[in-house]
Automatic annotation (TrEMBL):
Occurrences of domain Metallo-beta-lactamase (ranges): 503-686
One Pfam family linked to the record: Lactamase_B
SMART domains linked to this entry: Lactamase_B
Location within or outside the cell: Cell membrane
Transmembrane segments: 222-243, 255-276, 305-323, 329-349, 361-378, 384-403, 410-429, 449-468
Cell membrane among keywords: yes
SUPFAM superfamilies: Metallo-hydrolase/oxidoreductase
CC terms in the record's Gene Ontology section: plasma membrane
Organism field: Pseudomonas marincola
Protein name per the record: DNA internalization-related competence protein ComEC/Rec2
Length: 740
């Protein structure tokens, strides 16, 4: 039985590894084969194939529900009902619409929309909207959050921006009640931590300040201050312990069996809390796990606890096979497995303090290989922070917040409990904030498979019970994580990576011992691509500090993320074509014509002295490695291009960054012919409002001819300068959910 369950789980999990999905006819054959094998001696293979087939079929249904390609970028009138709580963020409201209908086209079952301006959108309302629709599309960069994967896992078939709309039906149902409760929580004084309490009670953290998010991420406590499986489990455990404690001290009626009542109360508490939080997929997963654990405790304790974990995995993955695409799924089940490992088979009991310390030690160490595999930042202060935060939040703050929310109609009582809960959150943050600055999160670089496997083996050994002779060998196996250096770039060559940052620019230049960032991507309100894309990408590329941050000019799409980069890692020098427009704390120096060498690679900067606007003032960077040259142009226009042609610099290059994202105001015929590139890089946003790149600009490149690398089509693009090879692109790496 166990082998069949494991095989089924492995088949369901294999979906994440598939580059493409099998065609329907092959899927049908797989199902027939699996059914036949299930009733043979090799039934484990049958269960594996059956799980894989079910996962593939479910994923194909989600892909088929995406917006039709011919509707991509079109504006349609549609109507549907708002589901979930809308997110209000810096003048933008983001929400999801279920079952949208249009007289002109068949639409996906769920779409995610953004509406700029001060609009009130409430869960449960029905709206008629004019929407510019887009197929699911996300930025593709080294080890950065994959938005397309997230959309597919949520079964969102399209995104869009609202141009106009009218409410056609008022709010109704559970969603509207949750929305009213959220507004009430945000309006109830709680020592300045109203947003945190709203996140804990109804699962919506859109009002949490960016600085607080940064603290939570650095200390590994995000899972505690936004409702997650941890809260569901802790609340269920607290209710179970309440009944068990009453029975132990003799205060429970002897005529009523306490165990069924404890299990029923714990399950009801978990379900009520889950519905209060909107019953999203992570909460569903937690409720399923709680239900199975309680059922095991009530009726099936004779079977091992590992069966409970396997059965929970099967239930969750059968209900939603796409759950395996989300990092939270892997982390939550891995954490449960780790706790089962350290608390089972031990001789003697542990005090609650010992249990808490050992649990944090096991989770911090045991999840390290999983964090490395998923490319997630590792909180160095997480074990210490969670040692205090887990009992405080789970056993005190959450019960106070829930009780306060339920008792809000009672004058002073509910508000008082919320005020107390908010005060405890504030005290917690006064401890977490300095801890986050003292031990910031570590973003690991890319490790080879051998180093990762050694880390897995070392972790497993260290988690074994103390006293086993092989246990101490775990530490040497972990050492390669600290002492393995990334492969050095060859002397005289450079690696140039144009990141995928939408309608903006960020180019990373690395030589053997130096690193440079040319522009730092845009920032739109709290959505900072410097923080979300550039900084994690730099760390994923094993860059610990920048020798030079060169900001071509002062426009937001080129400098918006610079502050996050400067705050996130050491930057030795800052240079810009518009140094006067930059904050004084950056100590930016003006760009001028000069030349220098790094590790046998020649770099030259240039700026037009007679520039009359920001684009013309862009600082141009020319890089040459072993005779192969690339020209980075910023946003220079035709006039600045003419001045550059007259500068006497050697401009003929194999690679050219298309000026101003491919705008028709740049890339003049004379400039393109003089540079004569074999390949052109274009950094832009999909469906951008400026129409970049212009058709006539692309036509000039085609006449040379030059191959065009576009971030929309290829994602991040990497050039091995000095090796005269083709560029490497991330979007072309096979993923079944990724649009080519």
């Amino acid at each position: 039985m166990r082998s069949g369950m494991i095989a089924l789980v492995l088949g369901l999990l294999s979906l994440r590894l598939l580059p493409v999905l099998p065609p329907p006819w092959l899927l049908g054959l797989l199902v027939l084969l699996a059914v036949g094998l299930v009733f043979t001696r090799i039934n484990s293979i049958g269960w594996f194939v059956l799980g894989l087939a079910w996962a593939c079929a479910s994923a194909q249904l989600a892909l088929d529900d995406r917006l039709a390609p011919e509707l991509d970028g079109r504006t349609l009138w549609l109507q549907g009902q708002v589901v979930g709580l809308a997110q209000q963020d810096d003048g933008v409201v983001r929400f999801e619409l279920a079952h949208p209908v249009s007289r002109r086209a068949l639409l996906p079952q769920k779409i995610r929309l953004s509406w700029y301006g001060q609009h009130s959108v409430v869960a449960g309302e029905a709206w008629r909207l004019a929407v510019r629709l887009k197929r699911p599309h996300g930025l593709v960069n080294p080890q950065v959050f994959d938005y397309e994967t997230w959309l597919l896992a949520q079964r969102i078939g399209a995104t869009g921006s609202v141009k106009d709309g009218q409410r056609i039906a008022p709010a109704s149902g559970l969603g509207s009640w949750r929305d009213r409760l959220r507004k009430r929580l945000l309006a109830t004084p709680a020592n300045g931590r109203e947003a945190m309490l709203a996140a804990l009670v109804v699962g919506n953290g859109s009002a949490i300040a960016p600085a607080d998010w940064a603290t939570l991420k650095a200390t590994g406590t995000v899972h505690l201050l936004v409702i997650s499986g941890t809260h569901i489990g802790l609340l269920a455990g607290l209710l179970y312990a309440l009944v068990a404690g009453l029975a132990r001290i003799g205060w429970w009626p002897q005529a009523i069996p306490w165990l069924p009542c404890a299990c029923a109360l714990a399950l009801c508490g978990a379900l009520v809390y889950g519905f209060l939080a909107g019953f999203q997929v992570p909460v569903q997963r937690a409720c399923a796990m709680v239900g199975l654990v309680l059922l095991w405790r009530l009726r099936f304790r004779r079977i091992g606890a590992s069966y409970v974990l396997l059965f929970a995995l099967i239930v969750v993955l059968l209900i939603e096979p796409l759950a395996s695409l989300q990092a939270g799924f892997w982390l939550s089940f891995s954490a449960v497995a780790l706790l089962m490992l350290i608390f089972s088979g031990r001789l003697g009991g542990w005090s609650w303090g010992q249990s808490l310390v050992r649990a944090q030690w096991a989770i911090a160490l045991g999840l390290l290989p999983m964090m490395l595999a998923l490319g997630l930042p590792v909180s160095l202060s997480g074990p210490l922070a969670n040692l205090v935060a887990v009992p405080l939040v789970g056993l005190v703050i959450v019960p106070l917040a829930l009780a306060g929310s339920l008792l809000l109609p009672v004058p002073y009582v509910g508000a008082g409990l919320l005020w107390l809960a908010g005060g405890l959150v504030e005290i917690l943050f006064r401890g977490l904030t300095p801890l986050a600055h003292w031990l910031p999160a570590w973003q690991p670089g890319a490790y080879g498979l051998g180093v990762w496997l050694l880390a897995c083996a070392g972790t497993l050994l260290l988690l074994l019970p103390s006293g086993l002779p092989l246990r101490l060998f775990g530490w040497p196996l972990m050492l390669p994580l600290l002492f393995t250096e990334p492969q050095k770039i060859a002397e005289g060559t450079a690696v140039v990576t144009m990141l995928d940052v939408g309608q903006g620019l960020a180019v990373v230049v690395r030589t053997r011992n130096h690193a440079l960032l040319y522009d730092a991507a845009p920032r739109f309100g709290d959505f900072d691509l410097g923080e979300r894309v550039v900084l994690p990408s730099l760390r994923a590329l094993n860059i610990e500090q920048l020798d030079l941050l060169l900001l071509s000019h002062g426009d937001n799409d080129h400098i918006g993320g610079a502050s996050a980069v400067i705050d996130g890692m050491p930057v030795e020098h800052v240079i810009s074509g518009e140094a006067g427009r930059l904050p004084s704390r950056w100590r930016a120096q003006p760009c001028r014509q000069r030349s220098w060498q790094w590790d046998g690679v020649t770099l030259q900067s240039w700026r037009w002295a007679d520039a009359s606007d920001a684009n013309q003032a862009s600082c141009v960077l020319i890089i040459e490695a072993q005779g192969e040259r690339i020209v980075l142009t910023g946003d220079i226009d035709v006039a600045a291009e003419s001045a550059l042609l007259a500068s006497g610099l050697e401009l003929e290059a194999r690679w050219l960054l298309s000026a101003h994202h491919g705008s028709r105001s740049s890339s003049s015929r004379a400039f393109v012919q003089r540079v004569a590139p074999q390949a052109v890089l274009i950094s832009r946003g999909k469906h951008n409002a400026f129409g970049h790149p212009a058709a006539d600009v692309l036509a000039r490149y085609a006449q040379i001819p030059a191959r065009v690398y576009d971030t929309v089509e290829q994602g991040a693009v990497t050039v091995q300068l000095g090796q005269f090879t083709d560029a490497k692109t991330l979007r072309t790496e096979s993923r079944f959910w990724r649009e080519k």
